[in-house]
Amino acid sequence: MASIFTCNISPYVALNSGNKPRFGVRAQSLGGGDSTVLSSDVIVVNGTSFVGPKEKNGALIDGGSGEKVKNGTLIDGGKNGSLKSRIEKKWVKDAVFKDLELLWDDGHGTKTVKDYLDGAKEIIKPDGGPPRWFCPAECGKPLKDSPVLLFLPGLDGVGLGLALHHKALGKAFEVRCLHIPVYDRTTFEGLVKIVEETVRLEHASSPNKPIYLVGESFGACLALAVAARNPKIDLVLILANPATSFSRSQLPLLPILEALPDGLHDVFPYLVGFVTGNPVKMAMANIEYKLPPRLQFQQLYHNLTALLPSVSVLSDIIPKETLIWRLKLLKSAAAYANSRLHAVKAEVLVLASGNDNLLPSKDEARRLKSSLKNCKVRYFKDNGHSMLMEDGLNLLTIIKGTCKYRRSRRLDLVSDFLPPSMSEFKCAFDEMTGLFRLATCSALFSTLDDGKIVKGLAGVPDEGPVLFIGYHMLMGLEIYSLVDEFLREKNIMVRGIAHPDLFSEIMEGSSTEFSVSDWMKVMGAVPVTGSNLFKLLSKKSHVLLYPGGQREALHYKGEAYKLIWPDQPEFVRMAARFGATIVPFGTVGEDDIAELALDYHDLMKIPILNDFAKDLMSKSSRVRDESKGEVASTDLFIPGLLPKIPGRFYFLFGKPIKTKGMKEMLEDKENAKQLYLHVKSEVQNSIAYLLKKREEDPYRSIIDRTIYRAFYSPLPEVPAFDP
C-alpha cells in the first residue's frame, strides 16, 4: 500500500520571477522519504537541499529542519514530518488578506479545459510515488482564518479538476488537491485512509474550523466515505455528480473496455471524454457573453480547434490498464459509500447535471437528499458530467449562494460574507436581471444636506453606518435596480434585510436550480433579526430595511404606495446606538409594469389556488406578533399579475437624518416615536413627489426610451425629468 501523504501548504506559492509555471504547487510528506513536486511546467525536485533561508511573498519560514526548496516550492525533507512540525510553522505577515475588495477579480472565465489538459500533461509524468496533496499556485493568498478545502478528483486522478476555479476558491479557502499517479494502484480503503489522516490532522490543528471536501464523481464517494467514518468532525461536503449511482449507469464502460481490442484502446479515452463532458460548454468557459454573436462563434471555433489537439493527453491520463483498474475501484467505492450513508452527519451540497450521459445524476441527487440528514441539491440542467470544467458554473458562487461558506462552527451571514466579485456582479445584474433592468430603466434622485434634489446618488453618504428605510414595491421588484445602481455609481454594497423564508426549506422545496433567491444571498441578503441588524451597523455597513416587509410587498388591490408599517419604532434606537445615518426613500413604478389582477382575497376564492396558498402559509415563518398591527399579517402568496408595456422605476432618497449623539435622547419612547413618524413622513413625501414628477418625464415609456437609445445614448443613460 502507498504510504500516507499530506500537505503543509502555504496559501501562496512564491514563484521565481524567471519561472512562472501555470500550475506550480507546494507539497509536504507526513511520513519520511522523498516528496514530489507537481507542476505543469516541469517543476521537479532533484534532491537539492536548501536549509536556513526564508521563502518570501507569503510562504513559510524555513526552520532549518531539512526542507527542500525548488522553484519557489517548499517540501519537508525531515525524517518525521509530524503534526507538531506542521503547526509550529509561522505565517509571514503578508501571507493572508483580512478582507476582499468589492467587485474583486475571481478569474472566472479566464481558463478553459485546455488549461486543465496542458497542466495534466506535466503532472502525469510517472515518478513512482504514491498519492499526494498539492496546492496550485493560482490559488494565491487566502483570507484570514480561511478554512481548508480538499479537492478529491474523479477517475482521472490528476487533481486539476478545479482548474477553472482555482483563483476564486484560493481567496476563500486554503485549497489542496489530491493527485493519484497514473500507475498507482492504491485500494479505495487506502485512499480513504490518506484523506482521513489529513482531515484528522487539520481538525486537530484547527478544531473550530470546518473542513471542506469537494468530490467530483469518484471523489464524491471518497468524501462520503471519509464523512461516514468521522461523524464528529465538522465537515462540509460539496459533491459534483456523485458516482454513488455507478451501478445504475446506462453506459457499461467496464465490459466495453475489457472487450476492446488493444489496437483501439487509444480511441476509448476520446469517446469517454465526449460522453463525460459537453465540448461546446467547455469551450465557452472563457467567452464573454456580451460579445456579438459573430465574435462569440469565432471565439468558440478558435477554442474548439485549440482544444482538439490537447485531447490526445487523455490516453496518457487514463491508459487502458489504469482505466480498467479505476472503474473497478469506482465500483467498490460506490458500494462502500452507499452502505454508510446512514452514518454521514456532515453538511452536504449535491450539484447535479441534467445532461450527464455517464450517470443518472439528477435521480441520484434526489436519492441522496432523502437519504442524508443535512443535504441540499442544486440542479444544472444544461451541464454534462464534467460540470466543473464547463461554462455557466462558478463553484465559489454556488457555495456562497447556498449559505455553505463559513469560517467557524456556526454560520454567521454577516462576518462570513464575501463581497461579490466582478464576474458575479455581471452575471447577477447583466445576465440574470439585465433585461428587466433595461425594461424598467431606473431613474435615481437624492437629496443633499441643504435640501436640494439632484439626479444620481450624490446625496447619499459614502461612509457608514447608513440605514435605508423605504417603501417595499409589489413583489420587491425594486431591489435589483437599487443594489445594482449603488454598486455601479458609488461602489457601495447595500446589505438587504430579508424575510427568513428566503433562507428556509420553503425555498429549497420550490426549486433546486440556482435561482434568484440564491443570488440575493450572494449579494449580501441576511434574515431579518435584531442581531443581524446589530452586526451590520456595527460593521458600518449600508443596510436596506423595509418596515412594511412582506405585508407591504404582497399588498392587496388598492394598496399601491400605501405604507403598512408597525406601530412601534423598531429601527430608531438601533440606528442611534451606532450613530447611523437614516436615509428615507420612496420608489414608484409598480403600476407602470403590471396590474395586480389576483390578490390574496381573490386567491382564497379559487379552490386549487386556495389550497396552495394555505400550504405555503403553513410553512412560512412569522416575523412579527399580532401586537405589531396590520404589518404582522403573514399572508404569503404569489399574486396574479397582468403585464403592461413597461414604464419606468423612480427612486428618491431623502435628506439624510443623522442620529450620531442622539442615543440618550432617543432612549425616551416619545422622542423615538417622533423620529420614527418623521422618517415615515419623508418616505410618503418622496413617493408623492415621484408620482407627480414622473408625469413630466418624456422617456417614461419604454418605446420613447428605445428610440432615444437608438439615436443618442449608451444603454444605461437615458435622461428623466428635471428635479
Automatic annotation (TrEMBL):
GO CC terms, sorted: membrane
SUPFAM superfamilies membership: alpha/beta-Hydrolases (SSF53474)
Domain of life according to the entry: Eukaryota
UniProt entry keywords in alphabetical sequence: Acyltransferase, Transferase
MF-aspect GO terms: diacylglycerol O-acyltransferase activity
Protein name: Serine aminopeptidase S33 domain-containing protein
GO biological processes: triglyceride biosynthetic process
CDD domains: LPLAT_MGAT-like
Segments forming a coiled coil: none
UniProt domain Serine aminopeptidase S33: residue ranges: 195-391
Recorded family membership: Belongs to the diacylglycerol acyltransferase family.
Organism: Populus deltoides
PANTHER family: MONOACYLGLYCEROL_DIACYLGLYCEROL O-ACYLTRANSFERASE, TRANSMEMBRANE PROTEIN 68
